[in-house]
Design goal:
By secondary structure, the chain is of the alpha/beta class. The protein has helices at about 30-35, 75-85, 120-130, 155, 175-180, 205-215, 255-260; strands spanning about 5-20, 20-30, 40-45, 55-60, 60-65, 65-75, 90-95, 110-115, 135-145, 160-165, 175, 195-200, 220-225, 240-245, 250-255, 265. The chain has two domains: about 5-95, Elongation Factor Tu (Ef-tu), domain 3 (Beta Barrel), CATH 2.40.30.10; about 110-225 and about 265-275, Nucleotide-binding domain of ferredoxin-NADP reductase (FNR) module (Rossmann fold, 3-Layer(aba) Sandwich). The strands form three sheets. A seven-stranded antiparallel β-sheet has the order 4-3-7-1-2-6-5. Strands 11-10-9-8-12-13-16 form a seven-stranded mixed β-sheet, with helices on both faces. Strands 14-15 form a two-stranded antiparallel ribbon. Strand 14 (about 240-245) and strand 15 (about 250-255) form a beta hairpin. The radius of gyration is 18 Å and the shape is globular. The two termini are about 25 Å apart.
Length: about 280
C-alpha cells in the first residue's frame, strides 16, 4: 500500500511547544484522519513559501475525529518555519503516504522501541495496540536529554509498560535504547519472546544496535526508516536505499523508502551497507 496522493489545504488548529524544541501541531482534515494507518506519513508544505521550496515528510502522531496531529522537532529552516505558524495559518498536506506497520494478532506480545522524535512514528501504533491487544504492550523510549522525553502519561494510564533511557541519566536508565533493551530482562520472562512483534523507529545507528539485539528466535522486527525525500510518492528518487535482493540475499538492490516503506522487516536491510542518517 503506497497511500493516497491527494493534497489538502487546511488551517492549523494549534501549534505548541510541548518540550524544549519539540512541537505538536494539529489541523482538521477528515479524509486524512479517516484514512491514515499507524506508520504512514504526510508531506507537509507551507503554501506560497519558497524557502524551503520542497515539502518534508512527517509521521502522523495522532488522529482524533477529524483532527490530525504532527509531532516534530525544530532542527532546520523548514521546521523553523513550521514552528512559527499560528492558529488559522494555512498548511498543505499530501497523503497519507507509504505503507504502515503490520498490525499483530491480539494475542501476540508487542515490543515498541523509539529513539528521539522517532516516538512520532509509533504513537499511533501504540494507541492501536492498547485498544486491540489482549496481552501487555511494552515501550522502550530514549532521548539524549530528560527534557526531550515526550509526556506519555495517558498511554501509561491505558496499561502501556514504559521503560525510559536518557543519555544524560536524569530520567530512567542512563544510556541508549539499545542499552536499555540489554538491561531489561523482564521483557523476556514467562516465554514472552517466543512470539513477539517488535516495532522500531529512530536514528540509523539506534536501529542497527537494536536490531542486532532483537535477532533471536520468535521475534519478528519491523523498522520505520527515516529518509530525506522531496515528493513522497517515488518520483524524486531521493530516498532510494540498498536492500537485500529477495532472490539472492547476498546482493543488494535499491528500493524507495517512500513507496516501498517506510516500514520494512529488519531482515530486508543489509545493515552493514546502510548509511548513517
Amino acid at each position: 500500500m503506497t497511500g493516497n496522493r491527494r493534497a489538502a489545504l487546511t488551517a492549523i488548529v494549534s501549534n505548541r511547544e510541548i518540550v524544549p524544541g519539540t512541537f505538536l501541531m494539529a489541523f482538521e482534515e477528515p479524509r486524512l484522519a479517516a484514512e491514515v494507518r499507524p506508520g504512514q506519513f504526510l508531506m507537509l508544505s507551507i503554501p506560497a513559501a519558497h524557502d524551503p521550496l520542497l515539502p518534508r515528510p512527517f509521521a502522523v502522531f495522532n488522529r482524533e475525529g477529524p483532527r490530525v496531529e504532527i509531532l516534530y522537532r525544530r532542527v532546520g529552516k523548514g521546521t523553523g518555519r513550521l514552528a512559527g505558524l499560528k492558529r488559522g495559518d494555512s498548511l498543505r498536506a499530501l497523503g497519507p503516504l507509504g505503507n504502515g506497520f503490520p498490525l499483530p494478532a491480539p494475542s501476540v506480545a508487542s515490543l515498541v522501541l523509539a529513539g528521539g522524535v522517532g516516538i512520532a512514528s509509533v504513537h499511533l501504533l501504540l494507541l492501536h495496540l492498547l485498544k486491540h491487544q489482549s496481552v501487555p504492550t511494552t515501550l522502550l523510549y530514549g532521548a539524549r536529554s530528560h527534557q526531550e522525553i515526550i509526556p506519555l502519561e495517558s498511554l501509561e494510564a491505558q496499561g502501556l509498560r514504559i521503560h525510559i533511557a536518557t543519555e544524560d541519566g536524569l530520567r530512567g536508565v542512563k544510556g541508549t535504547v539499545a542499552a536499555l533493551l540489554s538491561t531489561t530482562p523482564a521483557l523476556w520472562e514467562d516465554g514472552a519472546a517466543a512470539s513477539t512483534e517488535a516495532f522500531v523507529c529512530g536514528p540509523m545507528a539506534m536501529l542497527r544496535a537494536v536490531v542486532a539485539r532483537l535477532n533471536r528466535p520468535g521475534i519478528r522486527t519491523h523498522v520505520s526508516l527515516e529518509s530525506r525525500m522531496a515528493c513522497g510518492y517515488g518520483v524524486c528518487q531521493g530516498c532510494a536505499m540498498p536492500f537485500k535482493d529477495k532472490e539472492n540475499p547476498e546482493r543488494v538492490r535499491y528500493r524507495k523508502v517512500c513507496t516501498d516503506g517506510p516500514v520494512f522487516t529488519a531482515d530486508e536491510i543489509p545493515w552493514g551497507k546502510t548509511e548513517a542518517s
